[in-house]
Design a protein that fits this description.
Layout lengths: L1 E5 L4 H12 L3 E8 L6 H13 L5 E7 L4 H4 L28 H16 L3 E3 L15 H14 L6 E3 L7 H11 L21 H11 L10 H17 L1
Parallel strand pairs: 1-2, 1-4, 2-3, 4-5
């Protein structure tokens, strides 16, 4: 079986990559450069894709669509706003929404799937993102799946989001069982040399590992201590 996967280099899509490989899929992974504020996630997507080749078939492509940045430059990821610190469920995290991102990336992925003769496109939307990101909700997945079918009725492609009812902690739990090398994943929106430990996605990542009683393997012991302190601080506020 062939599947096209949107691979960001973060925890969720990297876990989905390993999940598909363990389901014996041939995975055609796409990582998009769409004008985001840093290239760290692309760098880590390359790392995780290369490592995953030890498990099964992975064909990984970096797709540069950065020319669209001027069309979707809004907020903290493609625009000029600062990345907000704080708990990932806070209202302020809406500034990290990239306008219509998943619709755009998934549309391209579907075209690629038709070319390959792949019948499935996967992306790692999950339950923890429900409150902030509309395009990570099961309602969106269902609606877009219908639109994809209607647009490609002669060569149907199914949109799948197998983690859409799972929390990030549950995804990490699955990934630990699958042997996902989380030290080769990147989540931080700031994109410095090391994770900032304070932005919404860093806080969410810390919580996911804490709930699994596991240290984040990307971080040093000192960084992990600081990450837990930051999480506890923002948790108390919420």
């Amino acid at each position: 079986m062939k599947a096209v996967l949107i691979l960001s280099g973060g925890i969720d899509s990297s876990t989905l990559l390993y999940y598909l490989l363990h389901q014996r899929y041939k995975v055609y992974a796409l990582t998009f450069v769409y004008g985001q504020r840093h290239a760290k996630e692309v760098e880590f997507a390359k790392k995780i894709a290369n490592e995953a080749k030890k498990v099964g078939f992975v064909d990984h492509k970096i797709v540069d669509i950065s020319a669209i940045r001027e069309l979707i430059s809004k907020g903290a990821i493609t625009g000029s706003e600062d990345v907000p610190d704080g708990h990932y469920s806070e209202e302020t995290q809406r500034s990290t929404i990239v306008p219509n991102r998943n619709m755009i990336l998934l549309s391209i992925a579907v075209g690629y799937a038709v070319k390959l003769g792949a019948r499935e496109v996967h992306y790692a939307a999950h339950k923890s993102d429900y409150s902030v990101y509309p395009d990570c909700r099961k309602e969106f997945v269902k609606a877009l799946d219908t639109a994809i079918y209607l647009a490609n009725i002669w060569e149907p492609v199914e949109l799948k989001a197998p983690f859409v009812e799972m929390t990030k902690a549950e995804i990490v739990s699955l990934g630990l069982k699958l042997g996902v090398p989380y030290e080769l994943t990147w989540s931080c929106y700031v994109g410095g040399e090391r994770p900032c430990l304070k932005c919404g996605t860093c806080i969410e990542r810390t919580e996911a590992f804490l709930l699994n009683n596991t240290k984040d393997p990307l971080l040093s012991d000192e960084e992990w201590k600081l990450a837990v302190e930051a999480y506890e601080k923002f948790k108390i506020k919420n």
